Each structure stands twice: as C-alpha cells, then as structure tokens.
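2024-03-11 09:14:02 DEBUG pipeline.ingest accepted 1 chain
2024-03-11 09:14:02 DEBUG pipeline.ingest length=441
2024-03-11 09:14:03 DEBUG pipeline.predict start
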Amino acid sequence: MRHARALLPYAATALIVVAASAAALGLAVADLRDARDAAVERPSVAPTAAARSFPELSRTGRLAYWRADASGTGGELTVANLDGTLRRALARTDATRRIALTRWTPDGEAVAFVENGVTLVVARLDGTRAEITLPDDVRATGARITEHRWTADAARVAASVVRADLRSDGYTARPADRTWGRATTLDDVFVSEWADNDHVLIHTGGGVIGVLRGGTVNAIRPLTGMPATSPLVADDGRVHFLSGAIASIPRDITLPYLTATAATVWSIGLDGGDPRRETQNPLDDVRIEARYAPSRYLAHRGSSQLQVLLSEAVNIPPIDAGPAERVVVAPDGRTAVGFSASRIIRFDLARGAATGSLGSPTVILDSVSGGDVWHPRALRAATPAAPAAAERPAARYVLSLGGHLWSMGPDGVASFLRPRALQSGRRPRRRPCGHRTAIGS
C-alpha cells in the first residue's frame, strides 16, 4: 500500500500529460480537417436542391447575417427586412469560422460568401445555390479569395486571390461557372469595383490603378501615372483614389490589403482625364473603401479592423454600441448600417453631418456575425472626362510603370505589355520598326 501511495504523484502527472496530448491531438486534427476542406470541394454549407417560392423581401432594404446554432460552432445565414420582418434561413454551415466576406449581390437576389478561403458560394433567395471554386493548381499555392466584387447586373464577379507568398492576381467568373478564370498574371494585382458591366478597376503593388476588360487576360489600361491605390467609383461618376507612397505587398495573408502613406485623395474621369485633388492633408497608412459625402470617405488604417472616417483627418466613429468593422451608407446618405464582430448597428448620419461623424449609434441585432445590408442603387458607372483639346502624340511609346512594361500608341492610350520586364539599370526602347521593344542600358 505504501508503494502504491508513492506512485500516486507519477500517476497524476501521467494523467495530465495524456489529457494535454489528447487536447493537442484534437486541435491538430481540426487544423488538418480545415486544410483538407480547403483543398477539396467538400462544402460545409448545406446544399439546396431546387428553387422554391418565398414571400418577397422589401425592395428598400434587406439584411443578411450569420447566427450561431445550439452547438456554438455552426450557424445559419439569415435574411430579413431592415425592420427584422420576413426573417428566414438561407443556408447553414457546421463551422462559421470557415465563412468570410458575406455580401449581397447588387440585384438583391442572392447572398455570396467565401467558404474555406477557396470557394465563393452564391445562395439565392429562391433557395438555389452556385459554387465557384479556385482551380486545383491555385489552391496548391495556399491561395485564398480576399475580396469579391460584382457587376451591377450581378452577371459577373471579380475576385482578388492572394497566395501564401503574398503574390496576388485578379480572377473573374459568372455564377454558372464552377471555377474561376485567371484575369491577370502580374503577381501584384488586386481588384476593386466594376467601372461598368464590362470593366473592373484594379490596383497593383507598384502603385498602378487601371481598368481591366472582363473576359480577358492582362487587358489593363492604366488610368494615371501618379502612384495610386484604393480606386473606387463615387456617386459623381468619377474614379477616386489615394495617391502617395504605396505599400508593395500586404502585411500578411490575414491583412490582404495595400495602404498608402503621405497620401491624399484624388479623382479622375474613367479615361484618366481631369484630375482633381479631393483632400489636402497627407495621411499615413490608410486605404479607402467608399465616399459617403463630398471629400469624406469610409476608410481603414493600418492593420486595424476598425472602420474610420477620412477627410482632412482620420476620425473614429462612435463606439458606444461597439466598434464597427465595416459600414454601409444608405443611398440617401442619411443613415448607415455598421457591422461589428457580434452586432449590427444603425447610425444617424443626419445628426452627425455637422461634425463629420456617423452620429449616434443604435443596436439593431446582437449575437450575430458576418453581416451585410442591401439597398437598391441607381446604376453607378464611371464616366470619362470631357475631351481634352491638346493634340495626341503622333508616335508610339513604351514606358515602365509600377514595375511593369506598358505601351502607348498614337491615340495616347496606354495598355499592358509585359509583367516585371525591367531589370535594374535598364530601360525600354522602341525598335525602329515600331512593332517591337528592346530592353537596353
């Protein structure tokens, strides 16, 4: 008996080791399962077989959000009117942590979200669904979808795809497609908003903003020679962007964004003409997402998830109801809906207009995540500037912009030529025939 008592401390230690090993094994298995799920097409979101008829949601505003189920790990995608009426489940998942970037399509007829980082799921209000998955060779590089943007008619979607080595490119697809088509091969491209139903705005780590023609590869037309990032189409029909010192790559895969330092906001027409400076004070480590009033923008700063307001300074919205990570302003500019990690918040912009803030917040829903709001919006397409009176160049040019090689013809319009073509100490030259380019010292 005395011998048995002497062994008790060792037995207790062994039990602790076994318990810790079991816990570590459980976490490892979960990580392996997530990696496997990202590498194969095995949706964790419950599928729906056929279209069904449901009461139509309001045409003035709709909410979408994820609410946890009884297990605490899974959840259901819920849609409802802004006032909470006609609430119903649209999709279910066994792990909400695998879900990201939940967004309404512009027509308000579907909610799209990224699952496991590699599949865009489009859940339609009629109960049907579509899935667009990254190709096998792209998934093998550790790539993840970090942004998706839809055309106004919801007929086409563009995505930013960032690999594990932080190289990035744009991809496009249609809802009926089962996989993405590569739209750029520059290794430093991010997509932004669609300028119209055929052209999407892009920006690069080299500080180039341009227009990419849908359904093509590398058919990019740069908009300006200024170092620029964060292009967006505002309600004035112009392309607004930040100009300053542009970060060449994202901080890491969890922060797949480019920021600008010593930056001010500018705007131009879709043809790159009529540049205007919208703000005067340089700001550091910022990116912009939308304009909600003249010279006022929704933005993020650095690695912070907090939505901020950018004008001549960076202002933090009220956090009484919780810090909003993303804010969507209504078309009339009088209200906004914010989304925190666990709440949906309403802001009264009319009250905050005098001070340049979002006004007083009110909690709409609690214990929810991954939300978005839909409002009907007039077709907002970027427009070219007024024709310039200056004569167009009569020669062909080749130039380096953002680390890539571009060509400009007699019409004065530049187009993409070659990626990462220049070496240190060398410059491009047109050959006498005018049809080829030489890289010389």
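2024-03-11 09:14:41 DEBUG pipeline.report Residues 77 and 91 are 5 Å apart (CA to CA).
2024-03-11 09:14:41 DEBUG pipeline.predict end
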